[in-house]
Specification:
Low-confidence stretches: 193-199
Distance between the termini: 46 Å
Number of helices: 6
Shape: globular
Mean pLDDT: 85
Structural class: mainly alpha
Length: 199
């Protein structure tokens, strides 16, 4: 299973995390640009691994386990290193906290629902959230220094990243509430079923 291309792509996202963190920590225009490029490449593998697994019928328990873990590690590590480097301008630390909190919430819900053999499907709005979130993080990793490096001095890269992160946070709240409501409905159903069995 480890030699299947979809799984290799998934693992590559995890391997890329320490490299990305090191690049951001260096804090130079060139390394900021490289961190952005690496993050974009990792985000592309997130799209490709699922597409290839479906096209080639290379489904595996390992892939299903690692894929969401790799995504959350990549997003979480990126947001934390940006926060630690004081690279979340315009109050973007707060949407970052919201996004990370939602990831923990949804992970907990998925774990609970998996034990009841109920899946939590990804909604279209959640896909929009992911799009804004990944684009925002890419912009924030690049920063204004990359704009200057590419001779785009007038482009407010960090500001655009912060705005998109706020949009992603709003979508995060909406989708997180939807997922929570779904989970609570199943909690109620399982409670009723348990009561009937006990009686």
């Amino acid at each position: 299973m480890l030699t299947d291309l979809p799984n290799i792509l998934t693992l590559s996202r995890i391997v890329a995390i320490p490299v990305l963190v090191a690049l951001v920590a260096m804090g130079a225009p060139g390394t900021d640009c490289a961190a952005c490029v690496l993050f974009i490449a990792a985000a592309i593998t997130d799209y490709l691994d699922g597409k290839l697994a479906r096209a080639w019928h290379q489904y595996s328990d390992l892939g299903r386990m690692l894929d969401p873990i790799a995504d959350k590690l990549l997003v979480g590590a990126s947001l934390m290193v940006l926060a630690g480097s004081d690279r979340l301008p315009f109050g973007a630390l707060y949407p970052a906290i919201i996004i990370l909190s939602r990831e923990i919430l949804v992970s907990g819900l998925r774990e609970f629902l998996a034990s009841t053999r109920v899946s939590l499907p990804v909604t279209r709005l959640a896909k929009w959230k992911t799009g804004f979130q990944m684009t925002a993080i890419g912009f924030l990793l690049a920063g204004d220094s990359t704009g200057k490096l590419l001779r785009l001095d007038g482009l407010p890269v960090s500001m655009l990243g912060a705005i998109m992160l706020w949009v992603a946070a709003i979508l995060t709240i909406v989708t997180g509430w939807d997922y929570l409501a779904t989970g609570l409905r199943h909690v109620g159903r399982n409670g009723e079923t348990a009561s009937k069995i006990a009686s």
